[in-house]
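Lab notebook page, bench 4
Experiment: in silico fold of construct C2
Operator: M.H.
Input chain length: 185 residues
Purpose: comparison with the prior construct
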Amino acid sequence: MTLDFGQPDAQGVPTVLTPRLVLRGWRPDDVPTYLEIVTAQGMADHTPQPKTEAAAWSQTAFQIGHWALRGYGMWAVEDRVSGQLLGRAGLYEALGWPGCEVAWTIRRDRWGQGLATEAGAAAVEFAFDVAGKDDLISIMTAGNVGSIRVATRLGLRRDRAEMLQGAEYEVYATDRKSWEAARAA
C-alpha cells in the first residue's frame, strides 16, 4: 500500500488514511476511551498497560512528546466510518530501547479483523519512506500469537530473544532492503 502522509497537525503528527482507518494525533478526549481499551480483559496479558486515567493520560502525553522529540511516534487509531477510537499504532523508540519498534494495540472486540496489520503496514511504510529508518523491530512475548502473526504479515521475522524491563521478549525484525524487495514483488 502506498499512502499519503498528510500535512502534520499542530503537534507535528501527520494524519494517515488507510482503507478502514484514520491514524491521527492524540487528543485529550481520547484518554477515557483509551483507558477502557487497555483495561479490557486480556489486554495486559502480553504488554504492560496503564491501569488508571492518570496513567493513560501520562502515556498519551508521552506519545505526543515522542512525535515532538523523534519526528515519529504512535498514532491514535480510529475507525474511518464510525470515528470510534480503536487503539494505537505506530513507531516507538524510547531512550535506551533496542531499536525503532513498530507496535500496535487494538481494542479487543475488534481483534481478528486485520486492523492491526493495516495500521502496522502504514507505520512500516512511514518508517522507511518518511522517517528514513533502515531497520525496524517489533517486540512481543512468545505467547502473543496474534501479534506474532501481525509482525510476520508485515514482513518481520524472529531475530532473537531479549530481556527488557525484567521480562523476556521475542524480537522480530526487518530492514529497508527486505521491505523494498517485498513491496516491489
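Observations: The radius of gyration is 15 Å. The chain has a mean pLDDT of 90.
Next step: discuss at group meeting.
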